[in-house]
Amino acid sequence: MVVISCAGLIAAPSATAAARIASINMCTDQLLLGLADPDQIVGLGPYARDPHLSWLAKQAERYPRLSGEAEDLLILAPDVILAGRYGKRATRDILRAKNLRVEEFDTPRSIDDVKAQIVRVGRLVGHPERADAMIAELDRAIGRAKAAAARHPARVLALSRRGWVTGGDSLLSSLLKTAGLSNAATDLGYAYGGFASLETIVAARPDLLLLAEDQPAAEDQGKALLLHPSIQRAYPPSRRIVIPEPLTICGGAMFAVALDRLVAAIERIDHAGTLPVGARASD
Fold first, then answer.
1. Quick one: which of 12, 128, 185, 193 has the most CB atoms within 10 Å?
2. Domain membership of residue 228 as a residue range
3. Which UniProt keywords apply (predicted)?
4. Helices marked H in 64-127 — which ranges?
């Protein structure tokens, strides 16, 4: 039996492909959906069907929904269970105590992390060729993004509810850096991310804002900040990049989609004539 979670990125491949596989982590859910045969998947995690979190939520509906606890996994007794390192440790301990194999995956923070996890899951499900194809598509998307950013370099601030800015040590920042764009949060001293005041956001003067929603509704105080007049005036739709959050939470096939969304937004913004002249990305 095998359990896969999000700890080490590089693991020795299994001698044989697992016939029956489960996942209890949202990111490994999506890798499993992209790399395994449908009849290999015996169940997916509790958030696999949530469209606000999972890019492949619709595809996940055809598979049983797991609780994320040990009980249903012990009943199913899969050969492999995919899980996250930062999920509930007691669950993984119980599974190991029952002689189930547990593979742990860390949360990816870079493009290299994403590729390593794709390779690892591809080996575990016995389809390394699918992993190679997924990585090749990701590399093509990276090439398109680099070409677009070379023509239109800019400082980008990834901003979400309550003024949260995504720091430099993150998957989203790696997406920007890989494309050749600069994460303005790094200039503000945010290594991992943090809450910035309205004044700090405006004073940072990024060339573009990256948002998860085009026109967020002021459903609560958290989203209301995004609709503040100062933000609206400085960053109208013509100076915003919109990439839905499910595209950037995890690595996998959706990361290529995220890069292409980035390219389309940059080119649209430039055609509108709103990219600052001389905008320059830094390392």
1. 185
2. 133-271
3. Signal
4. 70-76, 89-97, 111-124
